[in-house]
């Protein structure tokens, strides 16, 4: 499962356990940042890993 | 008639996107977006017929004002090309979101415009800090505007100062804080509040399942706080009891 699908599942069912991320194609570091609510570092890591924009308009880490 | 829909994505990725906003994203000919999170970008790409980021237009300039003008022009150009354009802006499309409003104000009357509100950082703050903005009233300021101008603060109200981590920075967002500007703001606030006054640095949660950042501190230590471009300063009301206006009391029915 892609990370986007996992996050979409969490958005649609807030009662879902974060362990759903373990099944997503995500690194341990990313999962730990997510579980620690380390928002800005998490965003930076996702932006690095994917073909998304680097979000430089909102923040640089 | 052509259509321009300006929609807010909210702050928490995917979770805050309303059904109304999703309706415009899926139905419009073209979707332009300036969002705060990469997965949301992926989600928009998944929903939209065609889409592209407005980020290149924004970062082409070193100052935010020119970036906003570029974005507004790109929206107008896109509207000349297709019949319906949806512009997705993170948070609320009218709160800290000049480009969309700038584009709408530049359009001729033959274009139908719709604005769909999104959940703003302020809405998240009310919920996460558990207070009612109507209870005592709420004043909100942009940190740089508060730095530059003599804004009148009512210490009996809830005070929200946006973008405290970016105070004094007119360029693109950066994690480098302007300590001199922060100290200047602190001194202005300490002229009104006790130095031991408790304040909060707040950052909304960006991902479903994550928690917001809420740091309590004494106002006199503002410059020592860990600030980021998404930090907001909140100062709760002073507890001093206010007496109602006697004349006004007679007007109550």
Radius of gyration of chain B: 20 Å
Order of helices and strands of chain B: EHEHEHHEHEHEHEHEEEH
What is the ordering of alpha helices and beta strands of chain A? HHH
Share of helical residues of chain B: 25-40%
* SSE-based structural type of chain A: mainly alpha
Describe this structure in words.
Chain A is mainly alpha-helical and 61 residues long. Chain A is 48% helix and 0% strand. Chain A has 3 helices and no strands. Chain A is globular. Chain A starts with a helix and ends in a 12-residue tail after the last helix. Chain B has 253 residues and is of the alpha/beta class. Chain B is built from 9 helices and 10 strands. A 5-stranded parallel sheet of chain B has the order 3-2-4-1-5, with helices on both faces. In chain B, helix 4 crosses helix 5. The termini of chain B are far apart. The model of chain B has no long low-confidence stretch (mean pLDDT 91). The A-B interface holds A 3-4, 7-8, 10-11, 14, 16, 18, 34, 37, 39-40, 42-43, 46-47, 50, 52-53, 55-61 and B 12-15, 34, 36-39, 41-43, 46, 53, 55, 58-59, 67, 90, 172-175, 203, 205-213, 228-230.
Question: What is this structure's SSE topology?
Answer:
The complex is a heterodimer of chains A (61) and B (253).
Chain A: H1 3-12, H2 28-35, H3 39-49
Chain B: E1 2-8, H1 19-27, E2 30-34, H2 38-47, E3 51-53, H3 55-59, H4 64-81, E4 84-89, H5 98-105, E5 111-116, H6 121-128, E6 138-142, H7 143-148, E7 158-162, H8 179-190, E8 198-203, E9 213-218, E10 232-235, H9 246-249
Parallel strand pairs in B: 1-4, 1-5, 2-3, 2-4, 6-7
Antiparallel strand pairs in B: 7-10, 8-9, 8-10
Helix pairs in contact in B: 4-5
Short note summarizing the structure:
The complex is a heterodimer of chains A (61) and B (253). Chain A has helices at 3-12, 28-35, 39-49. With 61 residues, chain A is mainly alpha-helical.
